[in-house]
Amino acid sequence: MGSGGSLGRRSELAGREVRRFRPSWRWLRGVARSAAVSALALTLTFWLVPGEQVPGGDVLSVVSLALVVLGLGALLRPLLVRFVVVTGVWGLLVTGFLAQSLVLGLALAAVPSIQPIDFPEIVLAAWLVAVLAAVINWVVDASGEEVHLAQVMGRTVSTARRTDVTGPGLLVVQLDGVSEPLLRQAAAAGSVPFLTSLLRSGSHRLREWHTGLPSTTPAGQAVLLHGDERAVPAFRWYDKEQGKVVQCSRPVDAGDVERGFTTGRGLLADDGASVANLFSGDAPFRALTMSHARLPGSEPGAAAYAASRSGFVRSMVLFVGQVATEWYQGRRQRYRDVVPRVRRGRTFVLLRGLTTVLLKDLSVAIVADRMARGTPVVFVDFLDYDEVAHHAGPTRPESVRTLESLDRVLRFFAEVSQEVGRDYELVVLSDHGQTQGSTYLQLAGRTLADDVDAIVDGDVDGPGGSPEVLGPANMLRTHGGRPAELVRRPLHRVVGASEAATDPAKPRCDVQVVAGGSIAHLYLPDHPGRLVREQVEAAAPGLVEGLRLLPYVGLVATRRADGCLVVEGGSGRVVLERRTGGPVVVEASGEDPTAVYGPTAVADLLDLDRRDHVGDVVALGRYDPGLHEVAAFEELVGSHGGLGGDQTRALFVHPADWAVPDRPLAGIDVHRLLVDRLLQQGLRRPETDAPSPEPSPAGVGS
What we know:
Helices cover 46% and strands 18% of the residues. With 702 residues, the protein is of the alpha+beta class.
């Protein structure tokens, strides 16, 4: 009875879809183009595959096969999508690799004029067809995205017809790492024509928001998605209570961090969707979200992506193309002796293809499906620019070129909004910018961790004097290929190493140096809690002074016992305090080490001082205002996390009719604007009507 009822409902849905279908010129052009490209790709494939599959080169048989492939694909893909949804990630992988082979095999059986081939040859032929079709589409369109996006649009419209949802909606697209000045430059250069058209038409406005310290994705998304300004001091840090380095690119750490600060009422709490983010915003629907990590598969959007003609197979083809492109561009930088630059190794070669093709295509498919199903608010992060800019440079051609592809995605989302039930407002923002510069290792000849060793061991050559490294640093590879400097070495409570060597009974403690971009947190893990300056000097004499004198460290910050923040540079120092009227300088001597970092540096340092898990000592890389370059403590030519340049200048593109204050914006301002808009649209329950958040498990969080 249940089975019969289910079959009846499916038949009714199928009949409804047939009745709703209306052919259009756009649909006819798409079918004709797909048939032509498929026929050409099949012809080339049969020419490349050994044997004579098409006797006498019968063109009519190949065209017939192409039409049968299209027809069978249209019939089988709904079943394949259902298979992926049921089986999850394994179904996604199997379908992605073999769906085209299944369709081609059945089509060959249905066209007797073409000679049958074995299954391994069918798999090879199917992938050859996909490769050749992708190349043909790229030659015709000068981009491989148009056909792919058109097919995603077709699936989206079909899903939207089955969804009876209307009203307003909000789509927030994060362009990871894109600064406001860079977007203005890209607009002037014609690299982002769609986004520029929104600004020129007056429908949207571009504003800058100031990230402060730290200028990182975890801190940016904590405030944008959850309204939290305290929990995240860097991309990675040392948790003394847990006795480990917390790194937000690790799912378990990201989940623990989010549970520590969430109230259950994040930006996406009311039926929202989080796609490809570090934190979830408390969204009920989460896909590719680090804090709730699981491989995609059961989501309908991901399933349709795997089963479609231009989905997984096409992405794999373009992935290989991106790997080849990165190899060429990295080699070209070396040949031209472009400075500054870093080694663009094998890990990044693969990560570039992953972020700019596979992850982006999958994210687009999932977001489009969520929009078609009427999800009221969607927040998605695209890593394309941030990943390339880290290794190529923030303003280098290959970095800026990623914005062209992202601009096409934004145009596509705007078109999707016109086809689905909800009228989505588009917001485009970023979490931070990037600043270019040679790395600390390139400038000093060794890492910051090595120089810390030299300081605390009383190296007679002085910091940076000897190239000998006292021990290798543990390099932790993170999400995005960013290495973390984590050093745990003996620290003698003596002035000279010789004294320690002659008196092994001297007490010893450890030092942790955790660097991220142009900021480094130093911890003395044997001493609980955050140490004040006096305690640091007692436990590690000469550490603060030695750091201050390093030529590529811009400033060193410690908290004094009276609560003031002491900031020292090469030839001066200031003592800062936060008062009711704002931050003030209570003491000063020599040149102000914060001045070079801009007028907000004092407030930024005091804000960082209030965050959880801040290092006992904090160091920032030297900033050169003439070249607008910062010394990064990681091997990244484009970095962020600290101060200097554009790394703290994030962007915010919003509809022009929003009431946005004219004063400078911070992340909490952007969060509140987004929340207020959801309330105005009726898409968010007032806080008085919201359910109480569930308590976090004991021991989780900071």
